Amino acid sequence: YVNMGDPESFALDDFTISFWFQSTYSSGVGDWRYVLGKRNSYHFELYGDGVLRFGFETPTGSWGHTSSDSGLNDGSWHHVTTTRNSTTGYFYLYIDGEVVNNEYQLQEGSDFSDLTGTLENDYNFYIGVLYAGHHAPFIGNVDELSIWDEILTESEIQSYMSTPPTGDETGLVGYWNFNENSGSTITDLSG
To answer: Residue 15's Cα: distance from chain center in Å?
Structure first.
C-alpha cells in the first residue's frame, strides 16, 4: 500500500477524484477491500462481487455512499471518478466515463443537506488500504490518480480518460501517474 500523508490539499470542499483500477478480487457476499481514501472522510471500496462503492463522512458524522453495478473485478482496467458539491452535498460516481444511476444510501434521518462542508481530518490518505493495519489490502492495481478541488464536467472526465492531466491544470491539487517503475516513492506531478 501507499501512505500519501495528510497534506492540506486533501481537505476537500467541491472535488473530483479520478483513477484507473484493475482487479480480479472475488469473495463472499459483503466482503470488501479498500481501494483508496481517507479514514472517516472519503473512500472507495471494491466488494467481492465486483461492486465499487464510493462513500464519505463529514466531520459531524453524517455519511452517504453510492455503488456501481457488479462485475468490475473482471481483470480489465476501469476508470473511476467521483464528484462532490460541498454546498448541496450531492455527489456522483462515474464508471468508465458514464454516471452511475444507482440509489444513494444516506445515514438514517439525514438528507444531502447534512453532507455539506469541507471533508477534513487528521488521518492520512492511503492507496491499497484505508489505514495501516485495517482490513486486508486491496488486490489489484491503481493508476493515474488525480484529485481536483473543483467539480469536473462529464465531458472533462471523459477527456481525461484518454488524455491524462499534464499537471498544471487549474484546480488540480494532486496527480500521480505511477510511472516511477521502481522504488517506494510516487511523485505528485501537479503544479
So the answer is: 10
